Amino acid sequence: MPSRVNHVCVTAISALCLWLPPALADTDKEDPWTPIRSFVGEWQGTSQGEAGTGNVKRTYAFVLNDRYLHEKNLSTYPPQGNSRGEVHEHWSFFSYDRARKALVLRQFHQEGFVNRYILNQQLSQPGKLVFESDQFENLDNNWRAKETYEISSTDEFVEIFELAPPGKSFAVYSRNHFTRVKK
């Protein structure tokens, strides 16, 4: 009789594990979202770069059964010098590629560019994440781009966006400093 009870218990536990959402069922595995989980929430900050000096608002939220981290960004640059001002919007999605065992970042820009980046684990370290481009849509793939996140605390980080034309070195295009508005 005890073996039948054990079999029923094992079957019930197995069924429960199949039912649990992935985040709960995989508790013994390392959480691939750990490096960016603290981004969830609303942020505001300043931006400096090629477009001038401006303000930036951003939100991060898990979507689609917590399989993607969605970023919405709005940067505004008032008229400065010879510029008429600029508004830049982009959406990003972070995902986890199990085959590469790496975080992937895809950015969709209002200008029609789509940039795909892979977390460079050799250049990254605690408090610093470096994503390097590996593919573009609507831009020559000989260009290179880099997104670096320098995380000061759970409530503050700096994002540095760098571009490199074909055959040239990286140059900072923009630097954004964010502070948390709310979680």
Architecture overview:
It is built from two helices and ten strands. The protein is mostly beta strands and 183 residues long. It has one domain: Lipocalin (Beta Barrel). A hairpin with a 4-residue loop joins strand 2 and strand 3. The termini are far apart.
How is the secondary structure organized here?
Blueprint lengths: L1 H18 L2 H4 L15 E9 L2 E12 L4 E10 L8 E12 L4 E8 L4 E6 L8 E10 L6 E10 L2 E9 L6 E12 L1
Antiparallel strand pairs: 1-2, 1-10, 2-3, 3-4, 4-5, 5-6, 6-7, 7-8, 8-9, 9-10
Compact overview of the structure:
With 183 residues, the chain is mostly beta strands. 12% of the residues lie in helices and 54% in strands. Strands 1-2-3-4-5-6-7-8-9-10 form a 10-stranded antiparallel barrel.
Keywords for this entry:
single chain; 183 residues; mainly beta; Lipocalin; ten-stranded antiparallel β-barrel; 12% helix
Radius of gyration (Å): 21 Å
The third-level CATH topology is Lipocalin
CATH architecture assignment name: Beta Barrel
Give the overall average pLDDT: 86
The helix/strand series, from N terminus to C terminus, equals: HHEEEEEEEEEE
Largest sheet properties: 10 strands, antiparallel, barrel
Morphology: globular
Number of helices: 2
Strand content: over 45%
Percentage of residues assigned to helices = 10-25%
Sequence stretches where pLDDT stays below 50 over 5 or more residues: 4-28
Number of strands: 10
Report the span from N to C terminus: 52 Å
